[in-house]
Each structure stands twice: as structure tokens, then as C-alpha cells.
Design brief:
Blueprint (H helix, E strand, L loop, with lengths): L1 E9 L16 H13 L6 E2 L8 E11 L5 H10 L5 E9 L11 E9 L13 E2 L6 H8 L4 E4 L14 E12 L2 E8 L6 H14 L5 H9 L14 E7 L17
Parallel strand pairs: 3-10, 5-6
Antiparallel strand pairs: 1-3, 1-4, 2-3, 5-9, 5-10, 7-8, 8-9
């Protein structure tokens, strides 16, 4: 029995999230179906981060066990031949038995993309967040600094979040602009359910001038989700990197969605 890790990219706009469900099209079900056809036996995969409906990934990492004698090229080319056009396997490699796509991950990096102009972007409507009100970059950057470090993020988790602890550590939270495009880059040890979209939604409200930058600190301290406002749309969110211990030699990053 061998453990294999894969790098997977997908356009989440046509899926009901990553995780397999009783109904609805999911990324996990598509990947498992494709790999099962390559292996000629059922294959189950575990991912680094379960993305929600409409969320994309350029660097999702998964692992699975199989005793099928296949080369890494077989898993990549064979898997892709059985996958739909909105999912792609970029690489495959054998990993030690102690490697776990989710529990071995040290950091995860998400990018949130905002189109900030008076009119919406028709061709990218399912891949970016369209915000017609001018956003103040400096206010958003000022508010973002508050979240760096280890905190109780109860105010930023969904009611259905199943995490045992709301404590997470954010290592990086950058807000940048390139022309009409804004990018939120957030890197943490792990994320709560809807945490990134909640943070993005709050930063957008602050950028609009609806709230002062100090609101971020007030909501963080309150540990009350009802005070945090509305989540940003799923369309703008991408999982772009997962970091592991160097010994595993896992490619850390996918391509960064950049339209500026």
C-alpha cells in the first residue's frame, strides 16, 4: 500500500464545495471517481482544506492510499483524462505514511480578489468579487493589522463551524491594489468555517467607509459572530498555497490569480 499526494486545481463556481455530499456536484466526488478509474478500485481522498460552494483552488493538496501499481505520470495523466474541464491534477508524488494532507499542513494561504470599479466584470463574475463603491485601501490595511497573531476568532466563524477551538494564528494579512483590482492575501495555520469570507466582508465595509478601522478590533474582542456583518461572496476566494515540513517536498504554491 502506497500513499500518494496530489496537487489539484479547480474552478469552484460549478461545485457545491469540496466535500462529498448526498446531493450536489462536489470536487471530492469528481477526483475520487477519476482516480478510482485509474486504480480500477475505489479510491478515497483527503484534502488540506475543505472549500465551500463557489470557492476556487490553484493549489489544493490531497492524499490517498492505493496498492495499484501506477507511476506518478499515470495518476496525473490518467486522472485528468477522467476529470471534468473545471478540475485538473498538476502533480503527484509518493509520500511517507505519516503524511496527512490536512493534519500535516503548517500554513494555508488564501487570496481574495476584488474588482473595484463602477460596473461589474461580466466575464469574471464567478471568479471575483465585484465592488462598485470606491474602497479606501489605507483604512482596510489599518484594520487588517489588528488580526495578525494568535486570537480567538469566534466572531469570524460560521454557526455551523465544527472546529473544537476558535483560536487561530494569522501570520500574514496583506491588502494591496493594482489599478482597479484589490487583493487580500491571508496566511494562517488554519481557518474556521467562513473565516476568510467574513474577514473580507468586514474589510470591504471598512473600505466603503461604512465602518471605521477600529471596528475590526471591537468585533474581534467581542467574540460574537452577530456583530461581524455579512460574508463577502465566495466567487473571489482562492486557496493558493499549503505549506508542509520541507522533508515532505510538497510543492507549496499554485498560481496567484492576478488581473491587474
Amino acid at each position: 500500500m502506497m500513499r500518494i499526494a496530489l496537487g489539484v486545481e479547480y474552478d469552484g463556481s460549478g461545485f457545491s464545495g469540496w466535500q462529498r455530499q448526498r446531493s450536489g456536484r462536489t470536487v471530492q466526488a469528481c477526483v475520487e471517481s477519476a482516480l478510482s478509474r485509474v486504480a480500477d478500485v475505489p479510491v478515497q481522498v483527503i484534502c488540506a482544506g475543505r472549500t465551500d460552494t463557489g470557492v476556487h483552488a490553484t493549489a489544493q493538496v490531497v492524499h490517498f492510499n492505493s496498492d495499484a501499481l501506477r507511476t506518478t505520470g499515470n495518476w496525473v495523466r490518467g486522472g485528468n483524462s477522467h476529470l471534468p474541464d473545471d478540475v485538473c491534477i498538476h502533480w503527484a508524488k509518493p509520500v511517507p505514511e505519516d503524511f496527512h494532507a490536512r493534519f500535516s499542513a503548517r500554513r494555508r494561504h488564501y487570496r481574495y480578489v476584488i474588482s473595484n470599479e463602477p460596473s461589474a466584470v461580466a466575464l469574471l463574475r464567478q471568479r471575483v468579487c465585484c465592488e462598485c463603491v470606491p474602497l479606501d485601501l489605507e483604512s482596510m490595511q489599518q484594520a487588517a493589522v489588528v488580526l495578525l497573531g494568535e486570537h480567538d476568532f469566534s466572531s469570524f466563524r460560521a454557526a455551523a463551524c465544527q472546529a473544537k477551538s476558535p483560536v487561530r494564528t494569522i501570520y500574514r494579512l496583506d491588502v494591496s491594489r493594482s489599478g482597479k483590482w484589490l487583493y487580500l492575501d491571508i496566511e494562517a495555520n488554519a481557518f474556521l468555517h467562513h473565516m476568510v469570507r467574513c474577514i473580507a466582508g468586514m474589510l470591504i465595509s471598512i473600505g466603503r467607509g461604512e465602518q471605521a478601522p477600529g471596528w475590526m478590533n471591537e468585533v474581534l474582542a467581542a467574540r460574537d459572530r452577530t456583530l461581524a456583518g455579512v460574508n463577502a461572496p465566495a466567487a473571489g476566494l482562492y486557496l493558493v498555497a499549503v505549506a508542509y515540513a520541507p522533508a515532505y517536498q510538497i510543492p507549496a504554491a499554485g498560481w496567484l490569480p492576478s488581473y491587474g
